[in-house]
Structures are given as structure tokens and as C-alpha cells.
Design a protein that fits this description.
The chain is an alpha+beta fold. It is 48% helix and 12% strand. It is built from twelve helices and four strands. The protein has a four-stranded antiparallel beta sheet with strand order 1-2-4-3, sandwiched between helices.
């Protein structure tokens, strides 16, 4: 097992994997880490689908365009889930409020599923495995993925996680400096722009000099480009079709 410091501070996204299987004891450890996720109210408003069938992974790849989905050994889909609590409410005759129709209900499900993903990621990294979180599992073709995974109403995919034996070890991407991320007692009051521009230049230099494929990407314009793309996702429409029509 890797030590916690290296797991947290030396992590990088892995997009190329070896073909070898992951030991069952490693997957069992990952599953237990997922089960032990801290959640709102201990409501455990999430579920996880472990996709290890190559044919199914390739179908998800066709929908998302993310090569690591088909080359990893296990692709985990983390879902916000109010189906389970609805089922037991019906069985016990409990009046179930439409919590999933509130913004807070959606946020609770997203937070729980995301915490579960981070528990899985940390456990996988501790086993010496490579990981790559994949948001396109949520945005690229949500209705098609929901059908493929046979998701019931009140369940939607929040994110995916590719897990496998690493075939690469890319350079670690620079992150924003501590003063741009952690503020004391209140939001930082001085002008952030100077430090943000410094970070933007650092990312530009990293992309120009990193091992493997080099680019001229900066940070700001590159990330905002993703935001522009995301404007076409119609995520709210997809959530409504899954039974999450937020009214309040």
C-alpha cells in the first residue's frame, strides 16, 4: 500500500492502462472504501455501477469518446440515487417528500456520489492503480447511458472513474498556489488577478514542456472553452427526464 502523503500529493490522471486484471482483493478494498463514504444524514444517496464487461465499456466509449473507458479494467459510474429510499418508503408506508425535486436534494445526491468517487480513487491509488475521473459520463449522452445502465427513475450519473494498472506516468499538473485556494475566516479581499495570471503562465509553460504531447494551451482560455462547450449540454433537461425536476 502507498502512503497517504504520496497518494494525495503525487496523484495524476492516468489515461493509458495495461491489459492485466486487477486483483480481487484490491477491488474488494475499493468497494469497502466506497461503502464507508461519509454521506448527508447517513442517507447514502448514491449507488455505483462497476462496469468490467469489455463490450459494455466499448459502448460507453462510443457515447463519451473517452478512450480510457475502454482500456481500463473497471469503469465505475457513480450515481445520485433516491430510488432506494423511495422503495423502502413505499414498503413501510412512509410518506416520501419530493426531496429530489429541490436544488438541495440534487446537491446532496451529487455530493454523496462525488465523495464516494474520491473514496474509490484514494483506495485505488493506495493499491498502486491508476485512475481518471470522467465527467463526460454525465454530460456526453446522459439518456443513452441511463438506458444502457438500466437506471430507474430518481437515479442519474454524476461522474465516472476509470481504474487500471498504469501504462504511463505523466507529469503532475501544477495546481493553484495555496493563497488562491485556501482563505482564512473570509473570502480573500485583495485583487486575485496578479496571482491568477502567474498561475496561467505556469500552466502555459507546463503544457509547452511536459513529457508527451505538448500544446500551447493556457489555463483561463482553455478552461473557459470547456464552459462554452458545456453550454450545449442541456443537463437540466436530462435531470428532469430522470425524475429530478427542480422546483425549489
Amino acid at each position: 500500500m502507498k502512503d497517504i502523503k504520496s497518494i494525495l500529493l503525487e496523484r495524476r490522471s492516468i489515461r493509458r492502462y495495461e491489459r492485466e486484471d486487477i486483483p480481487s482483493e484490491s477491488m474488494d478494498f475499493i468497494y469497502e472504501a466506497i461503502r464507508n463514504t461519509p454521506t448527508s444524514y447517513n442517507g447514502q444517496q448514491f449507488s455505483v455501477i462497476d462496469v468490467d464487461d469489455q463490450e459494455v465499456k466499448e459502448k460507453i466509449y462510443e457515447l463519451t469518446g473517452q478512450k480510457q473507458v475502454k482500456t481500463c479494467r473497471h469503469f465505475l459510474l457513480f450515481c445520485a440515487d433516491y430510488n432506494k429510499i423511495t422503495k423502502i418508503a413505499e414498503a413501510k408506508g412512509i410518506d416520501m417528500p419530493d426531496f429530489q425535486l429541490t436544488a438541495d436534494g440534487v446537491i446532496v445526491g451529487v455530493v454523496d456520489a462525488t465523495l464516494a468517487m474520491m473514496n474509490a480513487l484514494t483506495a485505488a491509488e493506495a493499491c498502486g492503480l491508476g485512475t481518471c475521473p470522467i465527467g463526460y459520463a454525465r454530460t456526453a449522452a446522459p439518456d443513452a447511458i441511463a438506458r444502457l445502465m438500466k437506471l430507474p427513475q430518481k437515479v442519474f450519473v454524476v461522474c465516472g472513474l476509470a481504474i487500471g494498472v498504469p501504462r504511463e506516468m505523466p507529469d503532475i499538473k501544477p495546481k493553484q498556489q495555496k493563497d488562491l485556494v485556501i482563505f482564512k475566516n473570509k473570502y480573500r479581499q485583495d485583487d486575485l488577478v496578479h496571482d491568477l495570471l502567474d498561475y496561467d503562465r505556469e500552466i502555459t509553460e507546463y503544457n509547452a514542456n511536459r513529457a508527451g504531447m505538448k500544446t500551447d494551451n493556457d489555463w483561463a482560455d482553455h478552461i473557459i472553452g470547456y464552459y462554452r462547450e458545456a453550454m450545449s449540454y442541456k443537463t437540466l433537461d436530462s435531470l428532469r427526464r430522470r425524475g429530478f425536476d427542480m422546483c425549489y
